[in-house]
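To close the section, here is one more complete example, presented without commentary so you can practise reading it yourself. The ligand is zinc ion.
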Amino acid sequence: MLAAVLYGKEQLRVEPVAVPRAGPKDILVKVRVALTCGTDLKVFRRGYHARMIQPPAVLGHELSGDIVEVGSEVTRFRPGQRVVAANSAPCGVCFFCRRDKENLCEDLLFNNGAYAEYVRIPGPIVDCNTHEIPANLGYREAAMVEPLACVLRGLDESNVRPGDTLTVIGLGPIGLMFVRMAKLMGARVIAIGRRRAQLERAEQMGAAELVLSPRAALPVEEVKGLTDGRRGSDVVIEAVGSPHTWRAAVAIVRSGGTVNFFGGCPNSSQVCLDTSRIHYSEITLKSSFHHTPRHIRRALEVICEDRIHAGRFVIDEAPLSGLLEVFRKMMSHNGHLKTAILPWRDSSPDETGP
Ligand SMILES: [Zn+2]
Ligand SMILES: [Zn+2]
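Output:
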């Protein structure tokens, strides 16, 4: 089969490799859609991810497809089913799993390999994080489950109440999902982005206020001026992952409010924070990472009900052989949303499903 193998820093080759074998508890999925994601791009540029992937390995983690083979011990699934599988599975028994923090599982199993014609889904992911795609849902929309689950969990952690003003810094796919879901929760959303096209998308997703901020320094006072009594935002979501926007998020939140540092900064980044502001203004600082099986299930429901308009996030498509070109485009243009990589595009016409 054809697969995109990561060998190291910016070394990715689309080449023939052996089709993975499904063990007794695994399933083998014919990949219909693999979505590009900022994390894959980060891994591509860095050449590895300490927890998620060590080269050489097939890259890609947001996928949907058809089951072509099930292991002898698999009872929940059968060949021919359309499925979406998440990129990880918690162990279910460790300290964190027993405390509803499966995202922090001490033995979190990660799976990559979506940028390929076939991917093996390991038993633990088959058991708790693989779902049949309802008949009314396309492969592209279904593949959005994983990033949306991270966003839903981020919102659960952020103390959002109806009527709150919630500010989102950074309007990539994740930031836009926050805009949309916060709006549906009854929040008034302020969206801050670097490009006009991003602000237009945020408006379509329900943002009430748009702030263009092309430079590194965020217009903190302008944003506070958009909040009740200029007090600041009840909740701030940082969805960029850079030290200066982490600091700006703390400057924008109101007394007693919550900041969620959702964007992970480059390794060993340091941020200086004003301790008296955090203490005397009782600011809650959170940082959400990853998802849990419960959020994966909820994400699929939200997508099925078309509340997130998942299709709008996938703005382009390419065959597997075009993946490098897509990554280069993403690197030179941070306004990019998601591209559907279609490993079978040139061989079967019905790859996008219903
Ligand atoms: Zn992702
Ligand atoms: Zn665990």
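Once you have examined the tokens, check your reading against these statements. The longest strand covers residues 27-35. The mean pLDDT is 95.
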